[in-house]
Amino acid sequence: MTIKKKNWNLMHFGLTICFSFIMQFAFCQKLQTITDRKDILIGEQIKLTIKAPLNGLNKWITLPDSIPHFEIVETAKPDTVNFKDDSKAIEQTITITSFDSGSWVFPPLPVEFAGVGGQPSKWVNTDSFLVNVSYAPADSTNQLRDIKPIMKVSVPDLFWVYIAGGAVLLLIIIYILYRHFKKKKKEAPATPVSKLSPYDEAVAELKKLSQFNLQDAAEIKQYHIKLADIFKNYLGRKQHKNLFNKTAGELLVNVKELGLPAENISELATALRCTDAVKFAKYLPLSNESEDCKHKIAEAIKLIEQTTNNQQRTTNSAS
Q1: Using CA atoms, how far apart are residues 96 and 172, in angstroms rounded to an integer?
Q2: How far apart are CA 111 and CA 107, in angstroms?
Q3: Domain that holds residue 73
Q4: How would you classify the pairing of strands 129-134 and 39-41?
């Protein structure tokens, strides 16, 4: 009994080995490695197609990160192929190249198949193949080739094009500046023509201010605007200048040049600042404040008139 049992175990072991060998051989027969070429010039590409039956496939190939002497150019997605007997296979095309001259072996790639009848899974490698990488053959004819003749290059004269372009650009700049300053410049109010002297005209206009109602907000504003214009018109006529666009500070600079006392200039500055506050800050002074502003400006006009007349007489006497 013992001998028979041993013989049976040996027979079972032998059958298992044979069956495994047969299955391995069958898988190898079904796993195909197809290349379109094996002799290339440096940089040329090889199409490597790997095909395996889908039935029993457990794990498809995984390409390594790098393969010595070879570069992977493109890896197509695995595709399923149907056969007439309703069987299916999976195939994948890999494009490779090499930049090292010589003969190099492309290594096998592992594919895992599931075991049959409770057997462990089987790893089957694709076929490795030899690739010959060479340089392009040298020209052995040693024929001399003509040198290409010198080509004449015509250089266009763009002098007048640059001149015309510069002139157009200059005109555009001048036009832009003209429009800018024209828009920015404020049109000065026309100076009224009067047969009266500057002083007499100013006194007459100051008297007209009594017509304004200093209890009404709108008339208070017009009162102070008119008051400032009377002073600007008077001083402008005396100095032969247009002062309507001047600020209170610029008017005071002109007055200081006439040599007026500092006290009178200070009172004039107070009156002009009050008119600016009414005009720009919507300040509404009391009626007595408005009257005081008129009085200070009237006194300033009177003092300027006396000072300029004295200066004129002194100049005439000296001449």
Answers
A1: 62
A2: 13
A3: 32-134
A4: parallel
Rg (CA), the chain: 55
Distance between CA atoms of 73 and 68, rounded to whole angstroms?
Answer: 14
Name the domain boundary from 134, 153, 187: 134
**pLDDT, mean over the chain:** 82
Give the pair of three-digit tokens for residue 121. 């899974």
Give 184-196 pLDDT, tens digit per residue. 665 545 555 668 8
- 203 and 312 assigned to the same domain: yes
**Which candidate, 36, 38, 93, places its Cα nearest to that of 63?**
93
In a domain, 285, yes or no: yes
The per-residue DSSP string of 136-180 comes to: PPP--S----PPPPPPP------HHHHHHHHHHHHHHHHHHHHHH
Q: Which residues make Cβ contacts (< 8 Å) with residue 131, sequence separation at least 6?
A: 38, 39, 40, 46, 70, 98, 103, 104, 105, 106
Name the residue type at position 83: F
> For residue range 236-292, what is the model confidence (pLDDT) as tens digits?
888 888 888 888 888 888 888 888 888 888 898 899 999 988 888 888 889 899 899
| pLDDT tens readout for residues 118-129 | 677 788 889 999
Do residues 73 and 45 make contact, with C-beta atoms less than 8 angstroms apart? yes
Nearest-10 Cα torsion for 304, 309, 314, 319: 130
* Residue 212 φ then ψ, to 5°: -80, 145
**Last residue within a domain, chosen from 86, 111, 134:** 134
In the block, tokens 């001048």 appear at 174
The model's pTM is 0.42
Q: Is residue 284 part of a domain?
A: yes
pLDDT at 13: 41
| Distinct helix (H) and strand (E) counts, the chain | 7, 11
User: Which helix or strand (DSSP H or E) is residue 316 part of?
Assistant: helix 287-318
